[in-house]
Amino acid sequence: MATLRGLQQPELSKKLFKLIKSENHVIGSYENASRERASVATQLSEWGESTGDESVSEISDKLGVLLSELGEQENNFAENLEEYRSTLKQIRNTESSVQPSRDHKAKVSDELQKLKYKDPQNVKMAQLEQELVRAEAENLVAEAQLTNITRQKLKEAYDIHFAAVIERAEKQVILARHGRRLLNLLDDTPMVPGDARPSFDGALPARQILNDAEDELRQWQASLEPVPSSAGLQKNLMPAGDGANGQAGFRQGTPPQLTSAAHGGSQFGGTASTDNLYGASGDDEIHPAHRKGQYNDSPSGRAVSGSSGTQATPYPVSEADSHAALV
Question: What is the pLDDT along the chain (327 residues), one digit of tens a residue?
Fold first, then answer.
């Protein structure tokens, strides 16, 4: 079915359709990595308990908590990638809507040239020439709208993408650093056969390390170089008038607030995502965890919006294109 939809795509949007489809597989891989990491964390905790060593059991249990949170960060990253992918779809949908304008212009031009060659005195010549003028004017507007939305949304999409990469990396560093602190609580001094290990006295410090990790994750804020935009497009995807051409796309100087855990928040009780990301109607390729809301603009100061986020397209699309736009 996906291959059939790809074949039905207008020529202009086929490459971006393929890219968006590939990104869907990437997102699935990160979600799978999240689940596998949580499974490994549980197995580590269970193994540590089965050793009968109090120290190993306590440390492995706490390490399992940190590993589980690392898995949650993979899921958060996948969620933010879905928002980036949704933004790219707006370019693809605009490409799909511009294709009929190009085709109509080419068709009228071909008919006019054929008629000039066969019957230069035909009365239809004037009619075709007028129709060609209209088609060229229509296409000129469509092409301007396409280049406007392409530049704006490409910038916005990869602003979201790279902000998500930075968030994931910095939070992984936090968790890894506290994991190494836990390892320092495990005494690995060799013992002589027959001697008994001293009782484990690191339970309270281990619990404090987890609390420190939780606090640091909760207080984390991105510090990013802003990605400003001068787009200022109106609903028809054309430039706004004087005085309205400000920072309409990305809010400069504000750190991004990317989504938190998709299923009830962080392992450490971090804030859960209030609205998930994408208002695209009936998108069967969006993962089930990401079908509720929509963020607007770029991560540089995004706020949750109730709007659908569907990009206006300059021309009607065919039934096949309308179906493919949901992909």
Answer: 455 555 577 888 899 999 999 999 999 999 999 999 999 999 999 999 999 899 999 999 999 999 999 999 999 999 999 999 999 999 999 998 888 888 888 888 888 888 888 887 787 888 888 888 888 888 898 888 899 999 999 999 999 999 999 999 999 999 999 999 999 999 988 988 888 888 889 899 999 999 999 999 999 998 888 888 877 766 666 676 544 443 333 333 333 344 443 333 444 444 333 333 333 333 444 444 444 444 344 444 443 333 334 444 444 444 444 444 444
List of long-range contacts for 302-305, beta carbons under 8 Å, 24+ apart: 302/256, 302/257, 304/274, 304/275
Extended beta strands in 208-320, E state: 294-295, 304-305
Say what the pTM is.
0.66
Q: How far apart are the C-alpha atoms of 154 and 110, rounded to whole Å? A: 34
